[in-house]
Write a structure and sequence with these properties.
alpha+beta; five-stranded antiparallel β-sheet; four-stranded antiparallel β-sheet; 24 helices
């Protein structure tokens, strides 16, 4: 592929290497000056649904017809083991009197607890008299930072009222009063807080991890910093570019996307740099002139790097097709980031290598045999022995026993993949929080002391057309309902009647979510019996459970659309790059197999080792997109090596050498990528722990089983058909000569 090297001269030639570096530095300087950084443009409460989703329409109707208490509630959970005293209740009343006269920032309204006589208040206590829940409503428009500000002022008021800090008291300590903030406001503040702290930790942990790995692999302090500088420069361009797009409203970024993007950049970015660096190191042992060596290594690796970057960009772009907001929002920032990272690894990194030269590898500088001899003479040392070419044992095994290798690896991966059928999913946000987090503790207390359904009742609204119907009784008769409120009439349309329905189970559980269609069915049946036409258009259900039902429904349909699209895109790319139908089919097949086995093995680890009952419903899609896109990288890199060698030697030899040469760089790249995803698993957020763990497991399976054993063994078995319908020129010469010699 000699014709590629033209571009190498433009980025890493004698003068052009400095030009490349200066252009990058100036670009970062200018963009940072004129555009905002991405961090300042985060929107953490963007809606996840379009307006045509049932729960969204129901919410809009509820806001219009039942505007009472329109705020978002913060639920204060007060608890004293052994029972709340009259004095406690008195303090709570005087707190609410203060909140009524001087509201805290962003407060919408508070119920008049100060006006309720003591016996009326006591009627609201839990059965054992230990717990009471009092809401404070905040304005719907507030984001989590504003809510946090309001709640902090509220907590200070509580501390002055009670003379101590009940928020700091451990729950269940006998005789002490504890307080917790939960409900939608508490949950929102805690969730954002988790990510805020996560960002810096993630960044530091990822950088350290990459450094340690690179030092371990190359044992060269200078080289270890080159990929990090590459990623750092790329981030310097990515941040203002995304910030600019977000400030114009063209894309939406949230904290979660940014933290995962950072990890992905370090993992994938380092991989691309390694592909080039490892090739450079190989060529330096054959070529004395460092510029020539670099240009040759750019020629050899740039195709595979560009292609790998391209698969990841396209796979991530496929998320644009998602209807569910948080998937859809991932697409643009991620694909733009990888695209810019790809450009950096094809321009900036070669320029840095050109500037530093052979010294990059110090103290283990690669030299040609002749240079080693000259150096020994000059220093008066004994002449170095010529190094023998070591054959990789994997390469040998794969070409000599391909059937054994294929059968063993397929059985191993297949067994793990079977477990992926057992995976259970949850859409419960709470289960993603650490158990000792304030909003979760408050949530659990309400569940224990009252009916858990009280946390988040669903609002069932019907258009009765003025007919008398006994819907309340029918709803109360449903086996999963614990309480139905009195009917309430709409503010504008008196025919619209609303009932608050409480479940007798955790309203965030899969079981409760599954009952939303049952409620709808019962209501439609009832309207039908009352002689109302088209009952389906006259029922609306809003509330957290209804929202999560839609999350599950929309998320599952997205997964069904996006997975085939990603597979299709990658298949087309591979066909264009390899020009072989056979190779494309088995490459795509192996990656899908390794994804299923990663899901299975991840479930074995999470469920049987860590006791996780269910994983977040969004994980299969995220892991799939990342694993398939990143896993294909390694295949492309290795197959490219085998393909180019097969032009100079028999296929068997090409596979043996291709596996040997690429195995060290791919193993190190895989370890770094798996490591960066594993960093996500150290965070206190369950959804990231699960995503990080499953993706890291998948990358390791790809690195150590699929790519070194399975793919080359299948290539060996297909022989010349691996190239079909492309041309394969069989080279026999070399074998015949060696057998005669």
């Amino acid at each position: 592929m000699e014709h590629h090297s033209g571009y190498g001269k433009w980025v890493a030639g004698k003068r052009s290497k400095w030009v490349t570096l200066i252009v990058w530095i100036m670009t970062i300087g200018v963009l940072t000056a004129i555009w905002p950084g991405v961090g300042s443009e985060e929107i953490n409460n963007a809606p996840n649904f379009n307006d045509d989703v049932a729960s969204v329409q129901a919410q809009q109707l509820a806001d219009k017809e039942f505007p009472g208490g329109t705020g978002t509630p913060a639920l204060l959970v007060w608890q004293r083991e052994g029972g709340l005293s009259d004095e406690d209740l008195g303090h709570i009343q005087s707190l609410y009197a203060k909140l009524t006269t001087n509201p805290v920032p962003h407060q919408d309204s508070v119920p008049p607890f100060d006006k309720i006589p003591l016996p009326g208040l006591k009627a609201q206590l839990s059965e054992d008299q230990s717990t009471i829940v009092t809401p404070v409503l905040f304005s719907k428009e507030s984001d989590s930072d504003q809510l946090k500000e309001g709640v902090e002022v509220l907590q200070t008021l509580v501390n002055t009222e009670f003379g101590n800090d009940p928020f700091a008291v451990k729950q269940g300590v006998t005789g002490e009063l504890s307080a917790r903030v939960t409900g939608p406001v508490g949950i929102s503040i805690d969730a954002t807080g988790l990510f805020k702290n996560a960002d810096i930790q993630l960044m530091i942990a990822t950088v350290l991890l990459v450094l340690v790995f690179l030092l371990g692999i190359y044992r060269s302090p200078i080289l270890a910093f080159i990929p990090l500088i590459g990623v750092g420069f790329a981030y310097g361009v990515i941040s203002p570019v995304l910030g600019f797009l977000a400030s114009k409203g063209w894309i939406t970024v949230d904290a979660q996307a940014i933290s995962i993007m950072t990890v992905l950049l370090f993992g994938a970015g380092t991989d691309y740099c390694l592909f080039l660096i490892s090739r450079f190191r190989q060529v330096l042992k054959e070529e004395e002139n460092k510029t020539k060596a670099l240009l040759k290594s750019i020629t050899d690796s740039s195709g595979a790097i560009a292609m790998s970057g391209f698969t990841v960009v396209l796979a991530l772009l496929a998320l644009i097709l998602a209807q569910y907001g948080s998937y859809h929002r991932f697409a643009a920032p991620f694909s733009i980031a990888i695209f810019i990272m790809g450009i950096a690894s094809l321009t900036l990194v070669p320029a840095l290598l050109a500037i530093i030269g052979r010294v990059s590898f110090w103290p283990f500088t690669p030299r040609t045999p002749q240079m080693e001899v000259d150096r020994a003479k000059k220093n008066g040392n004994p002449l170095p022995k010529p190094k023998e070419h070591r054959e990789s044992w994997i390469g040998k095994l794969v070409v000599n026993k391909p059937w054994t290798v294929v059968i063993v690896t397929v059985v191993l991966l297949g067994t793990m993949a079977l477990f992926s059928n057992q995976v259970k999913f949850t859409y419960d946000i709470m289960s993603s929080f650490p158990k000792d987090m304030a909003s979760r503790e408050g949530f659990d207390t309400i569940g224990k002391q009252f009916s858990p359904g009280e946390l988040a009742p669903v609002k069932v609204m019907v258009d009765t057309e003025g007919k008398d119907e006994s819907l309340g009784e029918k709803l109360a008769a449903l086996p999963f309902v614990s309480l139905v409120s009195e009917p309430e009439q709409g503010a504008q349309n008196k025919n619209i009647v609303a009932y608050e329905v409480e479940f007798n189970m955790n309203p965030y559980s899969l079981e409760a979510i599954g009952h939303i269609p049952d409620i709808r069915l019962a209501v439609e049946q009832s309207l039908n019996d009352s002689g109302i036409n088209d009952p389906a258009d006259k029922v609306w259900i809003s509330g957290q459970t209804a929202t999560q039902y839609d999350t599950k429904k929309v998320g599952e349909s997205d997964t069904r659309v996006i997975i085939p699209v990603v597979i299709g895109l990658i298949t087309i790319l591979l066909l264009l790059y390899l020009r072989s139908i056979v190779a494309t089919l088995y490459l795509v097949g192996t990656v899908i197999l390794s994804y299923l086995s990663a899901l299975g093995l991840g479930w074995i680890i999470l469920h049987y080792l860590f006791g996780v009952d269910a994983i977040q419903g969004s994980i299969p899609l995220y892991s799939f997109v990342f694993l398939v896109a990143l896993g294909e990288d390694y295949n492309i890199f290795m197959i490219s090596s085998i393909w180019s060698k097969s032009r100079k030697m028999p296929l068997k030899q090409a596979i043996k050498e291709g596996v040997g040469e690429t195995s060290s760089v791919i193993t190190s790249a895989g370890l770094i990528l798996a490591g960066t995803f594993a960093v996500l698993a150290t965070l206190p957020i369950q959804v990231l722990v699960q995503f990080g763990l499953i993706t890291a497991v998948g990358v390791l399976l790809d690195t150590f089983i699929v790519r070194p054993f399975l793919v080359p063994a299948i290539t060996m078995l297909c022989g010349r058909f691996a190239f079909w319908p492309g041309k394969y020129v069989e080279i026999k010469d070399h074998e015949e000569r060696s057998s005669q010699g």
